[in-house]
């Protein structure tokens, strides 16, 4: 029986699950209960509650109710807690933020398992609002502790999930620019994406901005508050959409659960544009990517440039089979968090390892060099080095060069040179 393909959007306020269906090639939201008609029920509050005197934990609304009636101790905002290396002491026992988030996600993963009767997960992609190494590392470690193989688990930020969600739709959706407004309790977020044609392969570019116009959703609890919020959103949309050719707008986030209240805003964004609403945009985007990771050939033949992606190609000039060639170590558009490269080179009299960094768009490449003065001097073609490349961010590159020696005649010195570059 084929395993599950899941996209899970993990935020401080709510978590959402989308399950990819191989037959329809689409992803649908999964809620705590089997039959949910209200989209709100697909939003699972990201919180846990340790019941008094018991070993069990509750999550979501059950956790909130138990804490409300004094039946246990609740902990929320788990993503921020992981970012801060936070802890919580409950009934004399201290729990780390990662442990509590792991408890929460363990029960989250049980939802689609029980719904489908399938325990196996073939591919899982988490998405979080912004790239955070600490949170991404925690999610990968949690998945591993829950029995998943690391190569089956990936993490995207919301900008990446939005980009892949849009590219998974029919091409007429992204004829021109595509925008999304995400209205949540802690703020208003704006995303835009476009495909730059005329290049091979084509470039898909996306951007994200946390807007100053954000407001608390408590403002929507009164008619006067709704009118004020409508004016704020309208002014924001007017600023963000002016002088742009936008074919489609998506509205997501808890603030847009009732899509009718912002009348002026809707009147503005609907002018000559297609407008869609829904709560699971990011988790669906993650689920589409989870399916794509399983395929031999990607369904996204684009160079994807956005937050979380490398904007330049990193290569080396090497001699192979008597010819000079460019060895690509990191292609433009790849995820900086997941990009790793390792290559062993035989040195032919050179005293440095040289790289070429070519920005997307065909501008002149930059050259970087790592001198090998610290390594023992050896004759030409009698020395090997291992070059290991990784990234600390979209523009932060770390390169390690390790002396490998050359057989028994020239044993390895064990020395390593590390250099950090801003590209």
pLDDT averaged residue by residue = 93
Number of helices: 8
CATH fold label of the largest domain: Nucleotidyltransferase, domain 5
Q: Globular, elongated, flat, extended or rod-shaped: what is the shape?
A: globular
The number of distinct β-strands equals 25
Rg (C-alpha, Å):
25 Å
Report on this model:
A hairpin with a 2-residue loop joins strand 12 (177-184) and strand 13 (187-196). The protein is an alpha+beta fold. It has three domains: 4-156, Nucleotidyltransferase, domain 5; 161-283, 2-Layer Sandwich (Nucleotidyltransferase, domain 5), CATH 3.30.420; 312-422, Substrate Binding Domain Of DNAk, Chain A, domain 1 (Sandwich). The mean pLDDT is 93. The chain has helices spanning 60-68, 78-83, 97-116, 133-145, 158-167, 223-241, 263-269, 281-292, and strands at 4-10, 14-21, 26-30, 44-45, 47-51, 57-59, 72-76, 87-90, 93-96, 121-128, 153-157, 177-184, 187-196, 202-211, 246-252, 274-277, 302-305, 312-320, 323-330, 340-346, 352-359, 366-371, 384-391, 396-405, 416-422. Helices cover 23% and strands 38% of the residues. The protein contains eight helices and 25 strands. The two termini are 46 Å apart. Strands 1, 2, 3, 4, 10 and 11 form a six-stranded mixed β-sheet that branches. Strands 16-15-12-13-14-17 form a six-stranded mixed β-sheet, with helices on both faces. Strands 19-18-21-22 form a four-stranded antiparallel β-sheet, with no helix packed on it.
């Amino acid at each position: 029986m084929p395993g599950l393909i899941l996209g899970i959007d993990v935020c401080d306020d709510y978590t959402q699950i989308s399950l990819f269906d191989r037959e329809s090639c689409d992803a649908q939201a999964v809620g705590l209960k089997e039959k949910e008609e209200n989209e709100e029920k697909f939003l699972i509050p990201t919180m846990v509650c340790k019941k008094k005197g018991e070993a069990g934990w509750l999550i979501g609304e059950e956790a909130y109710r138990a804490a409300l009636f004094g039946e246990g101790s609740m902990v929320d905002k788990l993503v921020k807690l992981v970012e801060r290396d936070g802890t919580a002491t409950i009934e004399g026992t201290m729990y780390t933020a990662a442990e509590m988030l792991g408890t929460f996600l363990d029960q989250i993963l049980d939802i689609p398992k029980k719904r489908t009767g399938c325990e196996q997960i073939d591919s899982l992609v988490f998405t979080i609002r912004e790239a955070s190494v600490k949170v991404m590392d925690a999610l990968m470690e949690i998945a591993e502790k829950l029995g998943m193989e690391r190569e089956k688990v990936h993490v995207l930020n919301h900008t990446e999930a939005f980009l892949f969600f849009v590219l998974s739709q029919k091409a007429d959706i992204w004829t021109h620019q595509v925008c999304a407004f995400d209205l949540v309790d802690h703020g208003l977020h704006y995303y835009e994406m476009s495909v730059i044609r005329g290049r091979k392969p084509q470039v898909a570019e996306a951007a994200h901005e946390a807007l100053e116009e954000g407001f608390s959703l408590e403002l929507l609890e009164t008619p006067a508050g709704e009118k004020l919020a409508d004016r704020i959103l309208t002014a924001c949309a007017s600023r963000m959409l002016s002088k742009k050719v936008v074919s489609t707008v998506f509205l997501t986030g808890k603030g847009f659960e009732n899509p009718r209240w912002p009348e002026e805003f809707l009147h503005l964004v609907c002018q000559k544009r297609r407008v869609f609403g829904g709560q699971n945009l990011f988790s669906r985007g993650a689920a589409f990517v989870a399916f794509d990771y399983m395929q031999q050939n990607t369904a996204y033949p684009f160079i994807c440039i956005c937050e979380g992606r490398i904007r330049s190609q990193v290569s080396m000039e090497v001699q192979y089979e008597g010819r000079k060639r460019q060895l690509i170590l990191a292609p433009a558009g790849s995820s900086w968090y997941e990009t790793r490269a390792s290559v062993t080179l035989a040195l032919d009299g050179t005293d440095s390892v040289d790289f070429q960094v070519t920005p997307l768009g065909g501008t002149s490449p930059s050259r970087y060099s790592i001198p090998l003065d610290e390594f023992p001097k050896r004759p030409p073609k009698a020395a090997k080095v291992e070059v290991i490349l990784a990234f600390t961010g979209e523009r932060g590159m770390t390169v390690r060069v390790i002396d490998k020696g050359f057989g028994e005649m020239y044993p390895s010195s064990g020395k390593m040179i590390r250099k950090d570059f801003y590209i």
